[in-house]
Amino acid sequence: MKGVKKQNLPEKNCVTCGRPFTWRKKWEKVWDEVKFCSDQCRMKKPKP
Question: Would you say residue 20 lies in a domain?
Answer without folding.
Answer: yes
